[in-house]
Amino acid sequence: MLVSRVLYPSEMDVWRDRDPVAGHPFAAGGFGVLEWYGRSQATAAVWAIVDEANRCIDAVRPWELAKGGRESALDGVLGSLVVAGRVVAAELAPFLPDLAARVGAQCAEVDGRLPAPRPLVARL
């Protein structure tokens, strides 16, 4: 299930073990968010994953985990965010296929590593 509220840094270890997309019918595969919800609600459902990932980043502050030497916690948080990115990429495909491909490419492992980060959209 999506975390239903923002967690604070003291709760970070609890969040680390949660998957931001677990419990959603479309996360298990077999059918997509579009088939599950219909077009109008599908965009809101996909955006909810993005919002939750952003709340996680704000609450957990992974850069502080990296500075503090908490590699295990950092790996858990970043792993969950990559999974969320992969689900978002898959579910964005019917709406924004080019953006979905770019998101998917950023979340695709090659030899156990993610590619170097690049902006997904151009700044105005």
Structure explained in plain terms:
- The protein is mainly alpha-helical.
- The protein has six helices and no strands.
- It has one domain (9-106).
- Helix content is 56%, strand content 0%.
- It is globular and about 45 Å long.
- The chain starts with 11 loop residues before the first helix and ends in an 18-residue tail after the last helix.
Q: How would you summarize this macromolecular structure in one to three sentences?
A:
This protein is an all-alpha fold and 124 residues long.
Secondary structure layout:
Blueprint: H1 12-16, H2 33-37, H3 39-60, H4 62-67, H5 71-92, H6 97-106
Helix pairs in contact: 3-5, 5-6
Count of alpha/pi helices? 6
Query: What ranges have pLDDT less than 50 throughout 5 or more consecutive residues?
Result: 1-17
Distance between the termini: 35 Å
Percentage of residues assigned to helices: 55-70%
Strand tally: 0
- State the shape: globular
Largest sheet: none
- Given the helix and strand composition, which structural class is it? mainly alpha
**Beta-strand residue fraction:** under 5%
Overall tally of domains: 1
**Which quaternary structure do these chains form?**
single chain
Order of helices and strands: HHHHHH
Radius of gyration: 15 Å
Task: Please give a handful of descriptors for the protein shown.
56% helix, mainly alpha, 6 helices, disordered N terminus
